[in-house]
Backbone:
């Protein structure tokens, strides 16, 4: 696409020569005007890529015209054309922001296209550099915003609960956050160990560094070793390039090792070396590399007992247990269940775009009575399921809760199967509730849609323990 050149030249013969020179190829489309006034008007009305400005114009001094062009169009490159022996004018023009200058001498027409191309090229480079700088500034602002968001999201006072058990854990976590020591989080599955690990990281001196997490039970030994410590090219089949491990990636930050009790003896030995020497050796490598990483480890097993039984290295256990924090199970902090349920309902209903009317008092009592063997994670899953099942504007009542939550008896562990009668009960309840909503709680219409009599429907609902809300005094 041809670049649009504006030529401001009062001498008609010179203008024709310059226009002919620039228009000889397809690179430039030239517009000629003969006064500063016409040039400024054209700039205001049409896009221009470059201006060729004669120093001597009938209606304005060339430098004054340059000032006006730079004021109104600072991004357009301007090349000033001067007469022979006017180098001082050219220098002054450059100070005012001209991109370049041309001196009219015997062969100056040959250099005009070259000077214009150079000016356009420099301008494009400057624009590209500015776009890059702008993107870099935006990227830095975005990184800063994300860091602030993470600090807010995982701040210690953002952890829900005011029971004595959770207050003790929060007190210890806040103290641990201000240090650089290794922290061991102990607690059952679902008690929020990673949430606490992130809170310790983002509340401490390493908050600006990376936070990386790895579940030691999620990968086989060979892959876990490569993931944690990295590998050199050719260390094993498929290792086509050298790769840094998580310890190096987390340098000056925090590495969270979840389920550390599941690490193999070989992995435990390498972990001990890193904690002792601050040095990591990649798989297949001969030299160690210094790292500055804070380790936060977590286990749902008693690591002390595992060490005594020979299933975990005692020396690694004591290296990890510099600052132990026990996270209480939900059954030990029943007073927090109501707070957690209300918080989760608000967050998850907003996430699903569904406005709900809160919990019925009976539903809250059932939630507080249930033992929650899966702890906060199980509670969150149940609230999420309830939000998905509820209708917009509905209040959460006991019939929306899972049957085992309502009955206070967790499903049997093992193969994960549930009695058929529980599955049938849930399906029947869900079907009847949907039809009732569809027919505005009109009992006869609901019974007809299900191929039942009203009495049969009522008997089924009593059997399921479900109470149907009444519509009004004139209903049925």
Residues:
């Amino acid at each position: 696409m041809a670049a649009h050149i504006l030529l401001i030249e009062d001498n008609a013969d010179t203008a024709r020569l310059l226009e002919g020179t620039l228009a000889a190829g397809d690179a430039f489309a030239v517009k000629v005007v003969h006064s500063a006034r016409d040039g400024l008007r054209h700039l205001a009305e049409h896009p221009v890529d470059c201006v060729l400005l004669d120093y001597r114009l009938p209606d304005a001094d060339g430098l004054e015209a340059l000032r006006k062009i730079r004021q109104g169009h600072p991004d357009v490159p301007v090349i000033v054309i001067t007469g022979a022996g006017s180098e001082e004018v050219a220098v002054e023009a450059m100070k005012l922001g001209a991109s370049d200058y041309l001196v009219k001498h015997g062969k100056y027409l040959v250099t005009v296209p070259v000077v214009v191309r150079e000016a356009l090229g420099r301008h494009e480079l400057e624009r590209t550099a500015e776009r890059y700088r702008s993107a870099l500034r935006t990227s830095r602002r975005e990184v800063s915003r994300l860091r602030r968001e993470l600090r807010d999201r995982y701040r210690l006072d953002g952890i829900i609960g005011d029971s004595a058990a959770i207050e003790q854990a929060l007190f210890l976590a806040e103290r641990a956050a201000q240090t650089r020591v290794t922290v061991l989080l102990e607690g059952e599955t679902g008690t929020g160990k990673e949430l606490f690990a992130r809170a310790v990281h983002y509340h401490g001196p390493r908050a600006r560094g990376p936070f990386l997490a790895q579940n030691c039970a999620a990968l086989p030994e060979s892959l876990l070793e490569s993931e944690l410590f990295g590998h050199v090219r050719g260390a094993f089949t498929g290792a086509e390039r050298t790769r840094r491990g998580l310890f190096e990636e987390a340098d000056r930050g925090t590495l969270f090792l979840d389920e550390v009790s599941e690490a193999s003896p070989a992995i435990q030995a390498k972990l001990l070396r890193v904690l002792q020497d601050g040095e990591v050796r990649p798989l297949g490598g001969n030299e160690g590399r210094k790292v500055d990483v804070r380790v936060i480890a977590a286990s749902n097993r008693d690591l002390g007992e595992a060490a005594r039984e020979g299933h975990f290295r005692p020396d690694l256990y004591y290296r990890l247990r510099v600052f132990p924090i026990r996270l209480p199970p939900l059954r030990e902090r029943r007073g927090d269940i109501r707070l957690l349920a209300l918080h989760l309902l608000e967050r998850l209903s907003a996430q699903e775009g569904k406005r709900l009317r809160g919990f019925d008092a009976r539903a809250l009592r059932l939630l507080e009575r249930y033992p929650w063997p899966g702890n906060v994670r199980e509670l969150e899953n149940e609230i999420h399921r309830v939000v998905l099942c509820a209708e917009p504007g509905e209040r959460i009542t006991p019939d929306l809760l899972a049957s085992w939550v309502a009955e206070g008896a967790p499903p049997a562990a093992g193969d994960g199967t549930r009695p058929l009668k529980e599955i049938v009960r849930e399906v029947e309840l869900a079907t009847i509730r949907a039809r009732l909503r569809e027919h505005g709680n009109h009992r006869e219409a609901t019974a007809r849609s299900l191929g039942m009599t009203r009495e049969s429907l009522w008997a089924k609902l009593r059997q399921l323990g479900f109470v149907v809300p009444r519509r009004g005094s004139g209903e049925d």
Summary: The two ends are 79 Å apart (CA to CA). Confidence is low (pLDDT under 50) at residues 471-476. The chain has four domains: 3-126, 158-328, 329-418, 421-476. The longest helix spans residues 108-153.
